[in-house]
Amino acid sequence: MEENRIDEKGFDAIMGIIFDNPRSKIVIDNGASSFLPLAGYLITNQVLELLDEHGHAVVFHTIVTGGQDLLDTITGLGELMTQFPARADFIVWLNEYFVAIEGEGKTFREMRVYQEHAARIKKVITLPRQSELFAQDMKQMLEAHLTFDEAIRSEAFQFMSKHRLQTMRKALFE
User: Fold this and answer.
1) Which residues of 32-55 are buried (b: 16+ CB within 10 A; e: fewer)?
2) Beta carbons within 8 Å of 124's beta carbon, 6+ residues apart
3) The three-state (H, E, C) secondary structure of 55-86, written as one string
């Protein structure tokens, strides 16, 4: 950030890290505030094509939520699929924390966006609705910026919290 604007030149530094580490797996986790500038940078600079030429695989992870955000997140997924080259794959996370992913009586796999782009969606991962205790444990872990393993080893979590985190980790990783 520079004077409340994202300095897109900073994205060049990220690309430098990627190209300096050709055999590494690199994750770019960006929030909503930098999503549009980053997407614009990737498109206008033909970064995906460049990554492909240098042997890098690109996989986008994107979230679809239910309820009032369903239309926005489904539309966003469709836009990503349209904007980025076919060589980029997608992993879709269905976040059912608040409500099931369903619209007009259709499940995600029955929706048009999935039907049109199923070949590029390599995996659909469902984050099922959990009890409030699971949610509290996950929130504590995320706010502490811990991985599952770190939280499970941490003395900040009680025995049953660690058990719930192990249960969530197993469900997600399988």
Assistant:
1) eebeebbbebbeeeebbeebeeee
2) 91, 92, 94, 108, 109
3) CCCCEEEEEEECHHHHHHHHHHHHHHHHHCCC
Name 25's Cβ contacts closer than 8 Å, sequence gap at least 6: none
Structure tokens, 162: 């660690």
Helix (H, G, I), strand (E, B) or coil at 93: strand
Beta-carbon contacts of residue 159 (< 8 Å; ≥ 6 apart): none
> Do 148 and 171 form a contact (C-beta atoms < 8 A)?
no
**Model confidence at 32: pLDDT above 90:** no
pLDDT (tens digit, 9 = 90+) per residue, 114-147? 999 999 999 999 887 778 898 899 889 999 999 9
Condensed to tens digits (0 to 9), the pLDDT of residues 37-71 reads 888 899 999 999 998 888 888 899 999 988 888 99
